[in-house]
Amino acid sequence: MGKIGRNDPCWCGSGKKFKKCHGPLGEDGPVATRMKRPDRRLQIMTPQTLPKMRAACRLAANILDEVCGKVQPGITTLDIDNWVLDLTLKAGAYPAPLNYPKGLTDPLNPIIKPGGFPKNCCTSINEVVCHGIPSAEDVLKEGDIVNIDVTCILDGYFGDTSRTVYVGTPSDEARLVTETARECLALGIAVVNPKNRLIDIGRAIEDHAKKFKLGVVQEYTGHGIGTIFHAEPQVLHYANKANDGELVPGMTFTIEPMINAGTWRTELDQSDGWTVYTKDRRLSAQFEHTILVTDDGHEILTLPG
Predict the structure, then answer these.
(1) Which of 138, 154, 187, 242 is spaced 20 to 30 A from 89 at the CA atom?
(2) Predicted confidence band at 105 (pLDDT cuts at 50, 70, 90)?
(3) What CA–CA distances, in Å, run from 205 to 65, 78, 155, 240, 254?
(4) How far apart are CA 210 and CA 80, in angstroms?
(5) For residue 94, what are the β-bridge partners?
(6) CA gap 229, 159 in Å, rounded
């Protein structure tokens, strides 16, 4: 699990040297979104860095697990945000979403307002796909579904995970979209090994969602993660040859399929620059884990324990 050298072949299979493709110099490579900034480099864990990555991911998982256990009708998403902040700070960590991206323009979401994200986690209710902003006005009610997305920075490493939770008893549609999203994540993770490729993750997720005529969000993706919040590679949740690449031992990235009850298309709330809705305002659910590619398979880093 060593680092890819600047003159080594790029992990994506383009045939170019890493420095000329996905490396820090970032010339045009074969993927749809090219990360040309030095802080977008591929994240490769080593035996020295992996313990810190595991610790950050385990912390995020434990925080998410504890907070999800408190979800019930009548609480607000601001309550959730406060719980996440308290648990994060008590662990000596920092909530990564707060003020992200610190005034910089993020090429994964160029519409982001310069002020940064205003809260400590994301809480996305019902038709909100992702990046929901916690608020005292958002009171959870019987039958809602809410995705809670937690990312911690611990000792310089990021751990990122999310889960969709039922608030009371869900409707049949809410149960279908949520359980399918859960299954899509599991199927995407199952194909992660050095013998497969990035496109296999997206294909496994897309094929399963299509069985139930559900939409797979395309505008928002999984991403490399380590000492950087959003890095290479982009991990699409649908099959796209333009964004394919090798799965290299030591790579760490998130898989986080967003599954919609209706269309896959989304709409950004222009008033806050963050909240993403389903285009048709039907339900959406998401689950997310941070994954390590191992020599013979994978390790889910964001399991509580």
Answers:
(1) 138
(2) very low
(3) 24, 32, 33, 12, 14
(4) 32
(5) 153
(6) 9
* CA 21 to centroid of chain Cα atoms: 24
Tens of pLDDT along 214-223? 999 999 999 9
CA–CA dist 131, 210 (Å, integer): 24
- Mapped onto helix, strand or coil, the DSSP state of residue 49 is coil
Mean model confidence pLDDT for the chain: 87
**How do residues 177-210 score in pLDDT, each as one tens digit?**
999 999 999 999 999 999 999 999 999 999 999 9
Look-up: residue for tokens 């490493």? 157
Q: Rounded to two decimals, what is the model's pTM?
A: 0.85
- Looking at the chain, how many residues does it have? 305
* Torsion, Cα of 162, 281, 200, 293 (10° steps): -10
Nearest to 126 by CA among 170, 71, 83, 157: 170
Q: Are 243 and 234 in contact (CB under 8 A)?
A: yes
